[in-house]
Amino acid sequence: MGRSLSRAARAWVAVLAVLVLVHLIAQLAGAEAFAQVSQWLLMPALGAVVVTATRWPRGHLVTWVLVALGLSWLGDLVPSLVGDDAAFLVMVGFFLLAQTAYVVAFAPAVRASVVHRRPVLLLPYAAVLVALVALCAPGAGSLLVPVAVYGGVLTAMAVLSTGLGRVAAIGGAVFLVSDALIALEAFVPSWELAGQGFWVMLTYVTGQGLIAAAVVSRNVAERQAPEPAPVRTFVQRPPVRDNVVALV
Question: What transmembrane ranges does the database entry give (predicted)?
Answer without folding.
Answer: 12-31, 61-82, 88-110, 122-141, 197-216
